[in-house]
Specification:
With about 375 residues, the chain is α+β, with helices and mostly antiparallel strands. The chain has 10 helices and 17 strands. The chain folds into 2 domains: about 260 residues, Zn peptidases (Aminopeptidase); about 110 residues, Alpha-Beta Plaits (2-Layer Sandwich), CATH 3.30.70.360.
Amino acid sequence: MRQDSLVSADPLVTLFLELARIPSPSGHERAVVDFLLTRLRGLGLEVEEEDPLYPDSRSSAGNLYCRLDGDVPGVPILLSAHTDTVPSEDEALPDPVLDEGVIRSGSRAVLGADDKAALAAIVYVVERIIHDKITHAGIELLLTVGEEGGLRGAKASSLEKVVSRCGFCLDCTGPVGGVIVRSPSQKTVQATFLGRSAHAGVVPEQGRSAVAAAAKAVAAMKLGRLDDETTANVGVIKGGEAVNVVPDRCVIEGEARSHDHSKLETQVAHMIEAINLAAAEEEVDVELTVTDEFQGFDFSKGGQPIELAEKAFGRMGLETRRISTGGGSDVNVFNLKGLPCVNLATGMEKVHTPDEYITAESLHRMYDFLMELMAVARDRQP
Ligand SMILES: [Zn+2]
């Protein structure tokens, strides 16, 4: 049941519904970025769009950055959320509905509260600050593109304009009050085994099987949960053309994550050794690429972002839930680039599925939190 009268009475919910109605799967953020540009520039803000991620595509867009200079001393802070969503099945369009305080997709499309709930709260806070002339110590916004499936917008951003030394991403599931304080580093390993093709029934001895080498390498690897802070996986294996041909090419793609840097190095070295050994035994060549995907962080023992967040939640009478995760987000990239940053839960649930939802109450809690955060940052000596 649609309750448009309720919607129009609540500008924050209305803003969220407007954002959710604009489809923006990764690589196609143009329309939602244009919406945000219009809204923020309408406040008189100078908003800069960084280079689009996919310059050949008309629907591609770049990260948005803008700064509100502070009018009182204190700690300037950066707020971040991502503008893209996961794609919806059959390219279904979101038709969000508010029913008894809960906002759902209303179609087979994902709602996109991940991360439009955060975008709505951030933009609405900025609007209130400007309209109500609320003093603050400086606020920067970095609204990224291409977060889903590779943190690409955050990786592409140099953060060169950012002056804040304290950042908050709003991109975690679960009730408002949750803060990701600890996250692992991740490296990916890609190996291309290059053998020699031959007819499998006539002259198999002349062939060198890339698939056999890849299989041997994967079988020799320790994978899965390796200890309480380290995991590893091979998620892709591709090779071969036909059952009667000894395959000359096979690619495997794997990853390792750990909260402990030396454990991560040890696991990656182990995976590389398994690959090289299998290639040698099967007499095939191998090309290896190891990539630093994101950097872990650990604010479990303190740090300005967690201290400010905890104070702000305290002022709301909310207990902070400190979360340690195995996942990565834009936050890992910002920390890697030297901006201390934590990830905050927004109240979104069942993300990346058509059952995704968020309550109007969660949107308001996030808004209240951001307002308290401004107040805490204002009172704090830099
Ligand atoms: Zn997200």
